[in-house]
TrEMBL record:
It comes from the Bacteria. Its EC number is 2.5.1.141. It comes from Natronocella acetinitrilica. GO terms for biological process: heme O biosynthetic process. Converts heme B (protoheme IX) to heme O by substitution of the vinyl group on carbon 2 of heme B porphyrin ring with a hydroxyethyl farnesyl side group. Signal peptide: none annotated. This is Protoheme IX farnesyltransferase.
Amino acid sequence: MAEFVDAVEARVSATWRDYYELTKPKVVALLVFTAIVGMVLAAPPAQVPWNALIFGSIGIALASAAAAAINQMVDRQVDARMARTSGRPLPQGVIDTPHAVVFAGGIGLLGLGMLWWLVNPLTAWLTFLSLIGYAFIYTLYLKRATPQNIVIGGAAGAAPPVLGWTAVTNSIDPHALLLFLIIFVWTPPHFWALAIHRREEYAEVNIPMLPVTHGVVFTQVQILLYTVLLVAVSLLPFALQMAGMMYLVGVMALNAGFLYYAIKLRWSADASIPMKAFGYSITYLMGVFGLLLLDHYLPLVQLLWS
Ligand code: HEM
Ligand SMILES: CC(C)=CCC/C(C)=C/CC/C(C)=C/COP(=O)(O)OP(=O)(O)O
């Protein structure tokens, strides 16, 4: 009997883990973090309305998770043929398509409903557009159509700070668009570093990623150019007095790291650099948004200290 219970429990927990994996949890975690920074920057320190913070974060997380699950449904055949993605629950047959549809539809509607009724309809609409942008326009069309797929598709992934800001103010603020721009310009170096490493897999499944269509050297040059642009864009929050000295010093250090990897990627023959640059891109984005958050709270800390 105990063995039977163990077996049932093992199956139940494995199933939940599979659904969890279907949501690309680490990507969603970073997306939600950028949304929370958008919320925090939209209000004076410690004055973010609770409904925006709680239901906004959960709603954006659920909608992003639904988008990630739809992406994996659409991609299940190509995912099955690439080493990096073949272990996912759909290609493995652990979750079948009808269950994935119900799951994605359920969490998507729950997330959008939460935003509509408990936050505001503008945030719900913009989140819905981001979901459509990533799950359908990027995955179904752009990904298979053009090597600029991730530049255009990156707009959906860059949306969360705007969604967070709108959750608080119920309007689209130019400052929020600056946060959007940072992620938008960050996305090509983030993804193309990985695409260089995985170019043979993409070529095999006929996905026209930049290193497949234009070669590795061209992609390395593009990564370098986007990184230089990113350095410039990342300084704008300081230039426009959205953030202070603490942000400036921190972001300069993060930028030095990204430039180091982009230059090394272009001129070093070391095969481990592309994945190191990819890993660093994630640290970089967490760092930039973490700095914006800390910088915004600095006056409050100083006030409490004095
Ligand atoms: C069109 C835009 C984007 C593309 C094409 C893209 C592509 C990818 C790919 C292919 C991976 C590797 C996944 C894996 O092998 O497990 C990845 C990982 C990751 N991406 Fe992106 N990404 C994009 C935008 C974003 C955005 C906007 C964020 C967050 C703000 C983000 C955060 C992450 C994180 C945290 C990981 C690591 C996941 C892990 O370690 O499991 N990405 N991305
Ligand atoms: C509502 C809202 C804010 C939606 C957010 C959209 C979202 C989840 C963006 C993540 C971007 C991402 C992981 C792209 C990789 O897809 P891929 O298919 O190229 O990569 P894969 O081969 O690893 O699946």
